Amino acid sequence: PSAFSINATTGLVTTARALDRETEDSYNFAVTAQDEGSRDGFDTLHSAANASVVVTVQDVNDEPPVILGGAAFNVSVREDAAVGSTAFVINTTDGDVGENGVNGHQYFLTGGAGVFAIATATGVVTLQRPLDAAIDDVYS
Questions:
Q1: By C-alpha distance, which of 56, 55, 8, 49 is closest to 29?
Q2: In the predicted model, is pLDDT for residue 16 greater than 90?
Q3: Per-residue pLDDT tens digits for 24-36
Q4: Is residue 120 within a helix (H) or strand (E), and if so which, with residue range?
Q5: What letter would DSSP give residue 9?
Q6: pTM, whole model, 2 decimals?
Q7: What phi and psi values does residue 98 have, to the nearest 5 degrees?
Q8: How confident is the model over 85-112, as pLDDT tens digits?
Q9: How does DSSP classify residue 101?
Q10: Cβ–Cβ under 8 Å, residues 37 and 25
Q11: How far apart are CA 136 and CA 132, in angstroms?
């Protein structure tokens, strides 16, 4: 089915269904305007004009972030790692393009027992206090 429809009387072109830039980023179609012609006996003479139309679909930030590497991580951090050092980095992507495709995701940390912090703009997870494997060797 066509993504657009035209009102034959007014010429108004409207969308016939939802558009999604990630599925189709542009549409091309032709429009013909035709008068009713003049009636001179048996012949009907019509005048017409044609136009080519290109519709470019602008992206909106509608694609959810995807965490690269999956939804679960097993990360090893040395017990003698310095407080403030980077433990690991969460990387994400999404299906948007242009400005909306730039990694503008926000990151939030739940759990970690106050041992880790995450930079909300970058996904960098840092160590917030010294580690002691004799006390706790797994964090989730």
A1: 55
A2: yes
A3: 999 999 999 888 7
A4: none
A5: T
A6: 0.67
A7: 60, -140
A8: 999 999 988 888 878 877 678 999 888 7
A9: H
A10: no
A11: 6
